[in-house]
Structures are given as structure tokens and as C-alpha cells.
Amino acid sequence: MRYYRVVLVGALALSLVLCTAAAATVVINEVDYDQPGTDTAEFIELYNNGIETVDLTGYVLRLINGATNLEYLAIDLSGYSIAPGGFFVICANSDFTPYCNLDISPDTNLIQNGAPDAMALFNGAVIVDALSYEGVVPGYGEGASAPADTGADPFVSLCRLPDGADTDDNAADFSLRCATPGEANAVQNTNCFDPVPTDEAAWGTFKANYR
């Protein structure tokens, strides 16, 4: 009897571990890594798919150089949290990105432009979510590559639609849409507006054009 109890307890423990891994709720939701000319409005938006607030202590967003498969920037998210259905925006320059929660350096050319490059969200040593764009970076993507943002169209970004949609295939989950940092991703992908109005209170006017 003791043998069977051990097996049962072990199975339950394994089940709990697997359920915990499957319950990861924070995803990379929107990325604008390329703009016409100098990249001055780059951002990465995270989204909480879950029903509880997620404490980001221990989370690190790592940006990966596809040419070398090595990290070129690590962004520590400790001390922050994301509410259920909420967004968290990391930007290069908050002057050009509304609702930026974490403004980091440098102010220009923060995110490499691909062919290919990647980013991965870690919780401790575990990859919670990953995005490869303009090609697949081994170990730092899900399925096929997300489409390329050439920077030719202003105010366009890589987006999940709807927010948080995750089939574990970057090609299926991401598409080019009008940039909406800190807000629900837009269906519209043409005639996009600058996401920086004269004041943040006017942001809703711009969002209304995408609905």
C-alpha cells in the first residue's frame, strides 16, 4: 500500500507542476521595433491573460540577437505587476509612447530590427513566452516566425489579435496592425494614427478611429 501511495502522491505533484506551467498568463502582446528613419518610438507591451494580478518579481524580458543567439539586453521587471486583463508597456522614450510603464535606455534603436531577432519573457529560468521575428531564432520562438515590420509604414506594430491570443505559433498569433501601446490591439492596419496625441486624455479620440 505504501508503494501505491507514493506513486499517487508523485503523480499528483507532477500534475500540479504541469498545471502551474500551463497556467502562465503573461504574454508578449505587441511590439513596435522599427519606424521610418531613426527608431525613436519603440515599445514592447505585455498582457495578463489571467484572472488574477501577476507579480512580475523574478520576471526578466531578454532581447536576443539572432545573428549570435545571444542576449543583448535584459530588462528586469521586479517590483512591477499586471492586473487581470491589463497591459504593461516597456518603451525607449515615454515622450513618444503613451502609457509607458517602464522607460529604459537607449532612447533610440532599443530593439534590434531582425533578420532574425527575438525576445523571450523569463520567470526565473523558465521561458514564459517568446517571439521571433523576421525569421526564427532557435530556442527563442514559437512555431514559425512572426511577420516583418519593415518600418516603411508609420505607427504599425506586431500585435496579437485579440489581445493575448496564443496558439504557440508566432506566425499565426502576430500580425501587423496600428500601434496601440497600453490599449486593446486594433483590427485596423492602414491609415494608422500617431499614438502620441498632444495629451494622454485625448488618446481615446484616436482609439475611437480603430473601432
Secondary-structure blueprint:
Layout: H1 2-22, E1 26-32, E2 43-48, E3 54-55, E4 59-65, E5 70-76, E6 81-82, E7 87-91, E8 102-103, E9 117-123, E10 126-133, E11 156-160, H2 170-173, E12 174-178, H3 203-208
Parallel strand pairs: 7-8
Antiparallel strand pairs: 1-2, 1-11, 2-7, 3-6, 4-5, 4-9, 9-10, 11-12
Number of domains: 1
Estimate percent helicity.
10-25%
Return the structural class: alpha+beta
Under the CATH scheme, which class?
Mainly Beta
Task: Kindly report the CATH topology.
Answer: Immunoglobulin-like
End-to-end distance: 62 Å
CATH homologous superfamily? Lamin Tail domain
Most strands sheet: 6 strands, mixed
- Over the alpha carbons, how many angstroms does the gyration radius reach? 18 Å
Task: Please provide the count of β strands.
Answer: 12
Summed up, the helix count is: 3
Roughly what fraction of the amino acids lie in strands? 25-35%
3D shape? globular
Order of adjacent strands in the largest pleated sheet: 8-7-2-1-11-12
Give the ordered list of helices and strands.
HEEEEEEEEEEEHEH
Low-pLDDT residue spans: 1-23
